[in-house]
Structure prediction request, 246 residues.
Amino acid sequence: MRQESADDFIQMAKDFAKAERELGVQKWVSISIERVDKNRNREQIFTYDLPREVYERWEWVVNWRRAKLVCKYPKDHVNCYFSFYDKRLGNNPKFISGLKTLASAKAQVTKVQRKIDEYIVYNKANNLFFDEDTDEDLLKAREKLAIKMANVQAAEDRLKQKIKQVKEKMNKDRRKRLEDLSEQIDIIKNELEEIRDEEQEARDNLPDNLQESSKAERMDEIIQAIEESMEYLEQACDGIQEAIQG
Prediction:
């Protein structure tokens, strides 16, 4: 009996993993190490945000970090908190819960389909009068499965739409940040241009006896450095504009 329960659990885990793959889940984990002193004051002292597979491969690093902090603060409590989430949706509890529910529903559909297939195989081998088209139990099971599949598909479509909206918002936010950055670079470039013009004017107004002096050479170097910086900033602006448009 225990072996059957273990097999069922393993199969359920496989069904859930299959559902996550079908949904394109990007498994990430947010890890927070927190210190709580004797007065119950909380302090977040370290954080990780990693793909789940990276965490699973380097879990010992997190354990080492926590152990080191326990030694550093022996009189305090050092706790480790984990939040597993889909990178596409962000670390939002509402989205995480909805995704888990959908993955669980898809896993249940897979389980029911497998039971139906097993039922058909068994009856074909042991029931001479079995007919897939007329068997009442099979027809009812398939009808229920069809309803579940339709509900799951509708829920999956809603999730995909939500993911699309989240991505569009993220893209919009990033585009706004790029536009702001481009404006800031323009401001810096204009200021450099003013400084270059002022330096050039000062260079042109040097007395004749200083036109070939080390001071004049130094001013020429400054002007050239400013102009090169302006060129780099111009290239940066062009790159940002391509990113915004692309």
In short: The longest strand covers residues 27-36.
